[in-house]
Amino acid sequence: MSAAGPVTTAIALDTEFANRKIWLVKVPNFVAERWRAVCQTNAHDGGDPVGPELGQISVDKPAAGAKEASMHLSLTHSDTEGLPKTFLMNVATQNMASMAAFAQTGPCSVSAVGRVFQKFDVVVERGAAGASTSGVDGVIDPEYRQLSRMRAKAAATKSRTTQLISQPQFTNLRHPMHIGTTKKRDPTEKRLAKPAEELTADLFRLFERQPHWIFAQLQRQTEQPTQHLKAVLLEIAVQNKRGPYKDMWELKKGYRLTGDA
């Protein structure tokens, strides 16, 4: 009698819409989290299976001197209190990897939704009375500024406390403990990755101190693993390829609090 092999389950793949062209719109984490909560509430309450309307995309005519039209995302759902209402959609299709989208339609069935042919990065819209709304000029959205402050404050709140013991007592110790000696940290010691939201808030505070950083400096300041830090950094910053700040990182234009170049 032979041992039973691994159990496999056949999955049905529907490819009827595999070549349909679709957009990939990448929104900030705080928008994605709010939308996810709205969809979960709708599913729990037995709402429309299509789901509620979360936002609308508008295409504006090219401004004077501009070559391309600008695109904006507006949050339309009622549960968006405390969030910016208007966002700029930046085209990010250049050098985009080939991607396809799939949806699970049943316990053992998956359907191809389409193939991504346009990618957009959504950033907070800027603007002020009499200023341009191109997403570069003007002041940052006040609701986003308040949201950033709240996130930075939450990230700075200490989750652990320390207490000084005047007369420590140790019992049932298998190995002797040497008190008063500090082990020097090994540079190769594994760093613990922070949650992306907390690390993003730390990076915003560092860029408020100075606009340009070398990656090694940011790693020393945040004490984060290289791959994790770079992945989070790429969400909000870019690395200069030339000029006086070559190889240094700076915030993307959509995240800067000033109009500095």
TrEMBL record:
Coiled coil: none
Tree of life domain: Eukaryota
Single GO biological process annotation from the record: transcription initiation at RNA polymerase II promoter
Annotated GO MF terms: DNA binding
Record domain CRIB: where: 165-180
Record's subcellular location: Nucleus
Keyword check for Transcription: yes
Membership in a protein family: Belongs to the TFIIF beta subunit family.
PANTHER family: GENERAL TRANSCRIPTION FACTOR IIF SUBUNIT 2
Name of the protein this chain belongs to: General transcription factor IIF subunit 2
